[in-house]
Amino acid sequence: MIEVKPADEKEIYQIITDAKLSRQKIGIIGFGKHLRREFKCDITLSTINLNNFEIKDNKVIADSGADVQKIREEAIQKNLLFPSIYDGSVGGLLALNEISSLSTAFGTPWDFTEWVDFITTFGKIRWRIVIGSQGLFGVITKATMKLYERPKKVYIYEKEIDDKKEFKFQIRKLATLKPLALLVEYDGNKKSFKIHASYTYEYELEGYTKDEGVPIISEVSDKNSYVIEIYDFIEDFLNIVDKVSPYYMYGIYGVNVVKVYVTDETLLKGFNYYSRNDAHPLFYKLKRIFDFYNIFA
């Protein structure tokens, strides 16, 4: 397997063209550790040399290999907020459409990204449709993303409960207060819910511990993990708990998916789901159009 590190879009297109002619497979990598989908390829294309970015007019224009953490740090110096806690490259963030606890207030990368350039066998295309595709049909090269006013202070409130009626009441109450972040976890062993809510204002919330900051999603492994699409956060979350009994599950209020961990995939029958190691099924259909020659692994 050969690893290539192109310096610009022209080089990327040439690599793709050569791979098409020689019928070789290309796998796209950044520098993060978030790639879940396994692939076999002849060429790994690294975006590490496409690492420039510029912050201007409450936006960041960034190459796909730019470091999200560095963007976040520079944004803070300008009193701006980059709405993700991702710690890899811009390309990885967009390829995964990675959610974070801040997705409650700002949405997923799809929501705060204005445009994306990506290279296919047909040339360069500017279209957000590539967000979430995990490199199935093109190489992301550049994007413009929105930045927001940075809050002066953020307070986090946390509580563990085991009553479903109380769970409904608490989530509805917290949601009306317009949280910056609202992360909900379910522990199947304890059969309890952990609620983490962050606000830019202080509130008196009975039974909650209070600190400063936002909740962090911590996942040790993607093994036995699946993504389930939902429509009503509270009712669907509880419905999955009742019907699936996962050993762990979490969701971000305002996002239409939850992440579920089960040892028996057949328990998910009847739900719209896919493996966390795969892209959404829609992108496999789009691959037939954008990657007609099937060179992207």
Q: Describe it for me?
A:
It is a single chain. The protein has 297 residues and is α+β, with helices and mostly antiparallel strands. It has two domains: 2-150, Uridine Diphospho-n-acetylenolpyruvylglucosamine Reductase, domain 3 (2-Layer Sandwich), CATH 3.30.465.10; 155-275. The protein has helices at 9-22, 68-77, 90-96, 103-106, 109-112, 164-176, 233-244, 281-290; strands at 2-4, 26-29, 43-46, 53-56, 59-63, 80-81, 113-120, 123-126, 139-146, 148-149, 155-161, 181-187, 192-199, 209-212, 225-229, 248-252, 257-261, 273-275. The strands form four sheets. The protein has an eight-stranded antiparallel beta sheet. The chain has a five-stranded antiparallel beta sheet with strand order 4-5-9-7-8. The longest helix has 14 residues, at 9-22.
How would you summarize what this structure contains?
It is built from 8 helices and 18 strands. The chain is an alpha+beta fold.
Reported for the largest beta sheet, the result is:
8 strands, antiparallel
Strand order, biggest sheet? 14-11-13-12-16-17-15-18
Mean pLDDT: 94
How many strand units? 18
What would the CATH topology of the largest domain be? Uridine Diphospho-n-acetylenolpyruvylglucosamine Reductase, domain 3
Report how far apart the termini are. 13 Å
Described by the principal axes of the CA atoms, the overall outline is: globular
Assign a percent range to the helix content: 10-25%
* CATH architecture heading of the largest domain: 2-Layer Sandwich
